[in-house]
Design a protein that fits this description.
mainly alpha; 83% helix; globular
Length: 63
């Protein structure tokens, strides 16, 4: 397994744990996912990286 795969797996586990914690606070699945997406986005300081993320998300929606 590559270091990229390891990082993806670690991120997935962190997200699942955080989603579970938010659910315990009363957030449904959609609300928890949106909160995480927004919090991640606002932490991206580079405008080009923000635009790339938006482009990726848009293409996921279209696909």
């Amino acid at each position: 397994m590559s270091s990229h795969d390891d990082m993806q797996e670690a991120a997935r586990l962190i997200v699942e744990d955080t989603m579970s914690r938010l659910a315990k606070l009363g957030a449904d699945h959609q609300a928890a996912a949106k909160l995480l997406a927004i919090q991640g986005y606002i932490r991206i300081e580079n405008k080009q990286a923000q635009a790339e993320l938006i482009s990726t998300l848009t293409s996921l929606m279209d696909g």
